[in-house]
Amino acid sequence: MFRKHSFLNSPNSFVSMYIKKLTIFILTLFTALFPAVASASLSGSIFHTSNSDFNGVPSQTAVANNQVKLDSSLSLGDSTDGAVTITGAKNINTDLISGLANHSRTCADGGDGVNYSVTALNHAAKTATLSTTPSSGCLAAGDEVLLINLKGISTNYDNVGNYEFLTIQTVSTNTITFTTTKTKYYGNVAGGDTNLGTADTNQRVMLQRVPNYTDVTVNWGTLGSNILTCSAWDGTKGGVLAFRASGTVNAGNTTTGKSDASERYAYISVSEKGFRGPAGPTYPDKAKAGESYFRSSFDSGAACGYANGVDAPATPNPGGGGGGGADAADTITVYLGAAGTTGPAGGGGGYGNNNHNMFNEDYGGGGGGGGGGYGSIGVNGNGYTTEDPASGSTGATGGDTSNAVNYAFGGGGGGGGTFGDSSQLNSKAYLGTSGGAGGMGLCAASCSGGSYAQPGGNGGPGGGVIFIIANTINVNYDSFVYDCGSGYYCEAHDYGSISANGGVGGSPSSTVSAGSGGGGGGAGGSIALFGNTINNEPSNGVVAAGGNRGSGGSFDGHYGNGGSGGGGRTYAAYRSFSGSDPTPNYAAGTLSYFPSGTYTSPIFQRQQVASWGNISWTKTGTGTITTKARSCTSASESNCYNYPNWSNCSNITSGSGLKSGTPNNCVFDNQKFIQYQATLGGDTITTPYLDDITLDYLYNPDVSVMSGIVKFFGSITFK
What we know:
It contains 2 helices and 36 strands. By secondary structure, the chain is mainly beta. Mean pLDDT is 76; it is low at 1-11, 300-316, 326-345, 351-364, 371-394, 399-407, 555-559 and 705-719.
């Protein structure tokens, strides 16, 4: 027969004493291992210090390099036009190149960057009137557009170069309404919008759609094959390439290691898309000066200086001067040559010869270099034809005549001049001016077709304008060394480039004995790059807006040469830049940061919270950081159902309690959901950095384990 006995209830039992001692030992050990149990709460923290931790919602802030910082104020667009890959030649003004499956845009008038002439602007009404009504789909609400004055008139040109980016609110026939009031003026006077139109007597203002891409990649290709470009200036509009990219722009596929002997190229280019070069003169015309930002197209003799016996204009032309024609003979009427003179920018045209003896004439003078294009005087009839542009502000005098020979020679056209200030390309941009035409030559006898007079060379066109706004801009380069035989090693290259170069002055009549003058070289245009990161491959990346050389005169290529065009303007604003500087006349800018911004964390859940502790963080950089926090009892992943508004929450200083502040009714004990918001402030030039942040709390432990131990040892029964 068995008898029930409780050892624990028998104080004098040996087993009872042993179990009690064992229980005390186990409880002591548990308390030692989990000391917070003794105080009925444990401590914890939420700690953020990496990109993966900072996975909340930034507003005018950015998360990078394991920090939260103010974002740059650079607008990267809305990515509406998607990713673009360029293979072959693509013209942003005429080709629909976005090719997105979810982008059904069509336009009979042009491409992604279709453009129109503007005939009126109403500042107060926020409207632009176009010269034609856009076809269906070409312009739409929400589209970004560029507004720019490309050319003025000889008496009013203060607003030339002004530009800004606007957003379309509505399109009604040929009237475009913007979402905001424009900030600049485009008419005859500095503060007005009068006299807009398409004639030489009007201000030429253009409205061009600005595609918002994600990524733009120009693939490697053979020489001249793969290029993103624009339409040339046509006298009323054109010459501008502009787009945004929220991701990366690559001139050339990203370099992954070249492995073949081919030479490959990738171009983003508006070279020779600027002001048009005048045609070489034929009898009895004068050589014409280059086109510029305020002169009527191809003014005869309206040189930076003057040529062809025409008096210098009251306002000298930045376009290259026309070369002087050969002097008149007794039996043939040819316009007199005259000296080109120094002007504000363009090179003067060279002398034609000035000896009336048909068989004892002088060489024609060389054209002067354009401002910024080695503005050297033509020496002994030679134009300064160096291709390398340099800085400078004034054009050079055209060359004088030289040694006597038996032919009459036309002077070289002056180089296209440079104007504008590189540091102002964030607000003003100009097309490059063209070089002047070379002067006519004169044969001692009929040269060809029964004509004694032979035409000079065409003036070289100027470069266009490029605006690229992107998160990252890469101008790539790669090389490959290979065994090319006979013990020699050769090197092949891949070259990416962004360019707005002027064109070479045109060659004159092929009749050597005619002595026609060569055309002046065109000036470089304008390149403005805006990117958080810009990489112009070291030593080999090409971002250039160079002027080009003039052409040699027809008499053995040495006399009556055209002058070199002036260098253009280049500008880059960035947060990070690597590689070689753009050329020439380069100015660097700094992107502004937003003056303030917020970072709002995700919602965090912590079970069994008894009380919330302190919040603390680490700040580096310049500026301020303040925080707020709020808690609630019930939440989804994205919303706390009974959160207070942030506006009702107090700022909390680092190291203070989450419930501190006067008043702070946003954080409460025993609520398991919490969220914080950091506000960053700076001076737009610098930014503070949030390196890490910690939220402390106490929570009640799960005591079920201890309860089980106590219950287990509470009673033992034997039968």
